[in-house]
Amino acid sequence: MTVDVATLESNLSHIRERVQRAASRAARSPDEITIVAVSKTFPAEAIRVAHSLGLRHFGENRVQEFESKHAALAGLDATWHLIGHLQSNKARRAVQLFSAIDSVDSVALAQRLNAMLNESAAASPQRLPVLIEVRLAPEESKTGVLPEELPSVIEAALALPHLEVRGLMAIPPFFEEPERVRPFFQKLRKLRDELRERFGTRASSGFGELSMGMSHDFEVAIEEGATQIRVGTALFGTRAKP
Ligand SMILES: *Cc1c(COP(=O)(O)O)cnc(C)c1O
Predict the structure, then answer these.
(1) Domain that holds residue 144
(2) Do residues 3 and 43 make contact, with C-beta atoms less than 8 angstroms apart?
(3) How many separate domains does the chain show?
């Protein structure tokens, strides 16, 4: 697959305009919003092009897929986010490959990540930034922590010395009409606010991150307080169906 630089450049400038307009509607600065470029299914070359256009955060949803691109990305200064469900048996590889895990969805997984990092603590003494994934629509999604279980999961994660718990992430149900996602974004923000109130002083980062919003609904997410938006299709184009 060849990557068309001009197309990516024009897609990115369109995304930046959309971010700017949404931020200004909400009286926010666009600098508060990090674009995580979701590169799943696209080759390492696409990531290199996106990087050359100034993007520094990339999201992948599968450990194995990223593993296959990883060698071709050596030397790039970027933050690599895992945004998909992580099975415990891949935790070791995940902490070697990724610089942030945005989809922590159980105490067991948090503990497993911490244990893997503990083994290599001498090599990388820094804490691994993580977000807790929230299950906002239990009837429609299988991954994520139920809102009522968040306090106990966060409590447990804060006790782990190799993790830095930075905030919340969610994948709301899909609606054609972005306005219909707004209540889910509002709910996530409210949860973040309550949890920040309760745990913020104990989380070294302050527990402020809110990862929400994808290609078709990120404006609404920004209006509702997103600090990280995860953008795939609007940047790289339509993904090939498996
Ligand atoms: C694929 C994916 C995205 C990006 O979705 P687009 O609609 O292509 O922008 C965002 N978040 C997660 C968790 C994903 O798996």
Answers:
(1) 5-236
(2) yes
(3) 1
Domain-embedded: residue 242: no
Q: How many residues would you count in the chain?
A: 242
Q: Is residue 218 part of a domain?
A: yes
CA atoms of 193 and 170, how far apart (whole Å): 15
Structural contact between residues 200 and 206, judged by C-beta atoms closer than 8 angstroms = yes
Ligand 1 contact via 61 beta carbon (within 6 Å): yes
Instruction: Establish whether residue 147 lines the binding site of ligand 1, counting it when its CB lies within 6 angstroms of any ligand atom.
Output: no
99: domain CATH number is: 3.20.20.10
Sole residue written with tokens 């990339």: 58
Integer angstrom CA distances of residue 49 from 6, 33, 57, 109, 139: 10, 21, 13, 33, 39
Per-residue pLDDT 10s for the chain (242 aa) are: 567 999 999 999 999 999 999 999 999 999 999 999 999 999 999 999 999 999 999 999 999 999 999 999 999 999 999 999 999 999 999 999 999 999 999 999 999 999 999 987 666 668 999 999 999 998 888 889 999 999 999 999 999 999 999 999 999 999 999 999 999 999 999 999 999 999 988 887 889 999 999 999 999 999 999 999 999 999 999 998 76
Cα dihedral sign for 40, 44, 46, 47?
positive
- Here the tokens at position 14 are 């369109």
Q: Which residue has the tokens 């609904």?
A: 217
The model carries a pTM of 0.96
Pocket residue to mutate for ligand 1, from 11, 12, 36, 38, most atoms within 8 A of Cβ: 38
Q: Does any domain span residue 152?
A: yes
Residue 241 belongs to a domain: no
